[in-house]
Automatic annotation (TrEMBL), chain B:
The chain crosses the membrane at residues 33-56, 95-121, 141-164, 205-226, 263-284. It is a multi-pass membrane protein. Residues 97-281 form the ABC transmembrane type-1 domain. InterPro entries: BP-dependent_transpt_permease (IPR050366), MetI-like (IPR000515), MetI-like_sf (IPR035906). One of its GO terms (cellular component) is plasma membrane. This is ABC transporter permease.
Amino acid sequence: MLLFYVLRRILAALPVMVLVAIIVFAALRLTPNDPATIMAGEDATEAQLEAIRVSMGLDQSILVQLGTWLQRLATGDLGVSLISGAPVLDLIGDRIGPTIALSTSSFLFTMMVAIPLGVLASRKPGHLVDRALMGLSTLGLSLPVFVIGYVLMYAFAISFRWLPVQGYEPLSSGFWAHAQRLIMPSLALSGAYIALVARMTRSSIIEVKGEDYIRTARAKGATETAILIRHALRNAAIPIVTVVGAGVASLITGVVVTESVFNLPGLGRLVVEAVLARDYPVIQALILLFSFIYILVNLIVDILYTVFDPRIRY
Amino acid sequence: MSSLQESGPIRREEAAPAGANAILRAALSSIPAWLAAVVMMCVVAMAVFAPLIATANPTAIAPAERLLGPTSAHFLGTDALGRDTFSRIVYGSRLSLTVGAGVTVFSVALGLVVGVFAGYFRAFDMVIMRVMDGLMAIPGILLAIALIALTGASLATVLVAITVPEVPRVVRLVRGVILSVRSEDFVEAAITLGSPIRRILWRHLIPSTVAPLTVQATFVFASAVLTESTLSFLGAGLPSEIPSWGNMMADGRMYFQLKPGLIFFPGFALAMTLLSVNIIGDVLRDRLDPKMEKRA
């Protein structure tokens, strides 16, 4: 039954993915730019431009182009960069390492910090600890990633010289070399995400604590810790998981900015470089990739619902 | 019928001041909210009276005075082209507030129309909501930088590019409210009595969206200001000679180790503005609509 549910969710996500592909294609094609000019340079002759247009299929009608593009997408063909001529898939492969490292470490850090903070704030709603933490969370939601990033850089890299200012080293050049360059970016990126998840943890635990089964558990003498872990957190999990999924959108935005601040050669830098160079195929592919990751994460969130809430059965 | 029509304008007159009062009372009844309101008024004053407050021309280049520290003439120093940092921050508030207000007005108006359409005329609901799902799945900042970089940056393209990703959230909110109010007895009664659609929309449905939309508008405003400065920071916003907080931070990146103030001063202005708007939004939400969660 669970398998059936999972399959159905995947089928429901597919039209959204196709729609995203069409929106991205339309949005980029409606802009008054000629990819052939970008590829050939400003001083190409009209005959050269025409040849490029024919070879890229740009002389076809817009609907035919959309069809061809969707067809290629379905087979995993993301096209070729207008600037370097390299397949977009290879470019992504070269640059995905730092992005995976940064997003994994930020995600883990967020979960380790945000849920305990949310639990702490929920113990005595309205008291000093709660107010202080919620104030901090408003601050976390308000500070732009690049402001946090530069404050951290100034403190830890320039004043104290504890960490390198910016840059990236792959895991293959040693764990510490790899990790020390990820500390500040992950902290900067996690700020807003921690605030979001901690808030949701707090409010859903407070809500759950008013339920009858918590009173029952308390009446039969369960310890506060047992109530928290076995009853409150488990039942508060669904809104928390939902906000974790929704927060992925801000995490993706944050990745683009953080990689620029700390000069990490990941997909976020790649998309900014591609935009500044007007490299259509790369821009299209990366926007799609990030959107699909968002859809995929939210698909996983939907499936996790059934794990956390046995009442949801399909 | 005639009695229903007569009661219309009277009730609306009663409703309007009560709503405005509730919003006013909500905004002014806590200390952080007061501080936030004061900061916002300062930022607005800065934008409106920029020529009076600024001590220098924000775009005047003076190579002899480049990268100065705080002096009596330039009390936040100068940037790499000798432009006065304080004056650029003052003028930068104009762009931030224009973009914030513009995007808020456009996305609330557009979202209201589309949301009412989806919520009331069920035939369009499915299609509209799937398109909104698709739009929401695309990271807004990526869509915005792509649109701006490819059409050329101008105030109009920046406004459009930031508005597009904000609309779906407003649509979802409005649609939800319309759906729940539509099934209320008094609306069913009005429909049964044969009230024209226009009256039902304006008398019964749209007024119930005002409170949640007011709250949402503050978050749209903050999000738009943040997105604009992020775009400029990434080099995909308005041309760098235009004073904007994001542009100033982008220009300051090369000299950060030498002159951290080039990033910290505009960053502080941006952070204080966002913090104030978010605090005001939180207070409004708690008072007007306690059940609504942030970033719905």
